[in-house]
Specification:
The protein has 13 helices and no strands. By secondary structure, the protein is mainly alpha-helical. The longest helix is centred in the last third of the chain and has 29 residues. Helix content is 75%, strand content 0%. The chain has one domain. The protein is globular.
């Protein structure tokens, strides 16, 4: 891997590991719908003009149905559910649970016949990964909110379906245009909802910093860097960040928010990571954009 590729890879491992921390801070004072509106709105203002200047948005009009589907399962629904879940779950645990997304993706493509059926090795990976998820929440069941777990489960399903929709129906279009359009659409959907949940007082500096960071660094800049990483090292190597982001999320949660790493979290993450490697053949086909 080139030096540029290494730098891009390292940047993405960090950038997509920190959203969980920022979301956890932001939802202390902002409603989830308000946070999603601000995050997507600011990011859309940064990316949409670039896509317009390149003339890349017009081809999306003929694919509006899959575009809406992709927006719903990859951005609009997962991001609000993720924010809702983090009002009850620690950011470190949330990040580790999202590590199971490649497992969900592997199961979905198998059940839908998108690819060849999984062999024994990959089924073993799914079972090991499921055991890891169970360990993440089961060994500390008294400290975990059931509704929040369901929300994270739905987020994982959405993150797994999104790339399938993208690859099948939008794969020949500009990735930047698809992301920009998705952000614009999500902003429009959440604008009226955010207006009803707008904070009555100015949020604290930490919350404002988290919102700006989520929008500019973890969304707009992150997508641009990720596209550059794919161009530099290829899509297969680029997806390896899926294995590292959760560890970064856990480390930040512990060091900056004083969250606790439990035995269940350690055992669970190791099992989930091992299961992902087995089930996806070391090449995860989905990348969760938190």
């Amino acid at each position: 891997m080139s030096r540029r590729g290494i730098l891009l890879f390292a940047a993405m491992c960090v950038i997509w590991g920190i959203p969980y921390l920022m979301i956890r801070v932001a939802v202390r004072e902002l409603a989830p719908v308000t946070l999603v509106f601000l995050r997507t709105g600011i990011a859309a203002l940064m990316l949409a003009p670039v896509a317009v200047l390149r003339g890349e948005l017009r081809p999306l009009l003929a694919r509006w149905k899959p575009l809406l589907a992709y927006t719903a399962v990859e951005v609009a629904i997962p991001w609000v559910l993720l924010a809702r879940a983090e009002t009850k779950l620690a950011s470190s645990l949330t990040g580790l649970l999202i590590a199971a997304v490649p497992l969900v993706g592997a199961l979905i493509v198998t059940l839908t016949g998108e690819r060849e059926r999984l062999g024994g090795r990959r089924w073993l990976g799914l079972l090991v990964g499921i055991g890891g998820v169970a360990a993440l929440v089961g060994l500390d069941v008294g400290q975990v909110d059931a509704v929040a777990l369901i929300e994270i489960g739905l987020v994982s399903i959405g993150y797994a379906i999104g790339p399938i929709v993208l690859a099948r129906y939008l794969g020949d279009l500009s990735a930047l245009a698809v992301v920009a359009a998705s952000l614009v659409l999500t902003t429009l959907v959440y604008a009226p909802l955010a207006a009803t949940r707008w904070p009555s007082t100015m949020p604290s500096a930490h919350v404002i910093e988290s919102v700006v960071g989520l929008a500019t660094i973890c969304t707009a800049l992150a997508f641009l860097l990720f596209f550059a990483l794919i161009a530099e090292v290829g899509p297969v190597r680029a997806t390896v960040i899926t294995y590292i982001n959760p560890a970064v999320a856990a480390l930040l949660g512990v060091t900056l928010l004083s969250e606790k790493i439990t035995t269940g979290m350690v055992i669970g993450f190791v099992l989930v990571l091992g299961g992902c490697v087995l089930a996806t053949g070391k090449n995860p086909q989905v990348v969760a954009e938190p």
